Amino acid sequence: MCGSCCIKICTSTVRQHLGSAGVGHGALALGILLGWSSLAIPELLKKSDTLGKISPIEASWISNISLLGALCAVLPIGLMVDRFGRRITILISSFPILIGWILMSIGNSVGILCFGRFLAGISGGAFSVIIPLYVTEIAETRLRGAMGYSFTQQLCAGAMIVFIMGKFASWKILGFKAIPISIILFIAAYFLPESPHYLFIIGDKGKGTDSLKWFRTTTEKEIIEAEVKEIESRVDRMTMSRHNGQSLSKGVGIPAVLMLLQQLSCAGHLIFGIVSISDVIGGKTMNPSSVVLIIIITPVVTMGLAALIVDRVGRRPLLILSTLVMSLSFFLLGCCIYVQTDENDSVLNKFRWIRLISFVSYIFAYSFGLGPISWLLMAELVPDRRKGFYASIVTIFNWLPAFILGKYFLLFVYFLTLPGFIWFCAIICIFAAFFSYLFVPETSKMSLPEIQDFLEDNLKMNHPV
Asked: Of 223, 225, 214, which Cα lies nearest the Cα of 15?
C-alpha cells in the first residue's frame, strides 16, 4: 500500500512539474529576450554588416523597447486572463514573440529591430502575468513554493543560454535559434489542461475537477473531493462578498511594493547586463568571460537549491535574510569601488576578489529570496476575483521601473556616481528587509483558498522569522 501511494505521489509531482516546465518555456524565451541585448548591442555599436554603426541613443532604444512592450501589454493581458483563461491567453501570447524573433533575425534597420523587440516584449509582459498564476494554481500546497521558483529560474537560464550561445553565434543567429522555444511553448500550452482554479471560478465544475484529477493523478475520491470542496467553498464566499480595502491593500499592495523594491535593487539589470560591467566587477587582471560565467550560473543554481527548502523554511524568513545579505554585499562592493582612482588602480586590483565575492553574494542572496519570492507572492496574494487584472497591476510596478532604469541607467550613475548608485541599491535592500518583516505574511503552509480567506477576514497567520 505504501509503495502504491509513493508511486501516485511521484506521478502527481511529475505532472505538476511537467505543467510548470511546459509553460515555463515562456519565461525561458523572456530571459533570452532580455539577455539578447548584452550580446547584440556591443556588436551593433562597433559596426554591423547589415545596420552599419548605430548611435548610443539607437542602442538604448533597441535594448529597452522590449521593456516598454511588456509594460504596454500587462493590463490588456490581465483582462484576457480573466475573460479567456490562462491557457488560451498563453497560446495567443506565444505569437508576438515568435514574430518578434523573426524580425530581429532578418531585420536590416533599427526600426525593424525595435518593432521586433517591442512585439517580443508584449509576449514577455504577458508571460510575466500568466505563468506565475498558472503555476501556483496547478500546484499542491506542498509544492507551490518550489514550483513558484521556476519562473525566475528559467528567466535566468535564458540569460545563461545567451552567454553560452554568444560564444558560437552572432545576435542574428541567436534570434533564429530562439524561435523553437516559442513553438514548444505553444505546443505545451495546447495540450496542458486549463487551471482548475480558473475553471471553478467561471462555474465549470466538471472541467475543473477533471483538470484537478489530471494534475493530482489520484483515484482516491476523498482526496480530490476535499480539494474540490475547499475551492468551491472559496468561490462561493468570493461571489457573495466584495473585496474590502484591507484585502486589496494586502493582496495587491504587498506584492506591488515588493516588485518595485526588486527593480530598484537593480539585481535583474545587473544579471542581464553583466557582460557590460564585468570589467568593473573583476578588475583588469581577471578574465571577463570567467567573471560573467560565474555570475550568470549563480542565480540558476541558487534558485534550484532554494526551491528545495522554500516550502519548509518559509517565504518570509528567506525574504528577510535575502535582502539583508544583499544590502551588506552591495555596501562592501560600493566601498571597494569608491577607492578606485586613476592613481590607486593597483590598490583596487588587490581587492578584485572582494569585489567579485561581494557581487556574487548579492546575486546569490537575490536568487534565493527577493527575486523569485516577489513573483511567487504576487501569484499567491492577488485576490481571486479578477485575478489576472490585479496581477497585471502588480506587474506594472515591475516593468515601469525596469524600463525607466534601463533607459536612464547611465544617467542615474552619472548623477549618483557608481559607488553612490550601489549604496542607493543597498539602502533599498534595507528598506525591503524592514518591509518584509512588518508586512509580508507567511503563506507556505496555506492553500490558495486559505490565503484569500486570511486576506479578507484578517485571520491570524503565523509569521516565523
From this structure: 214
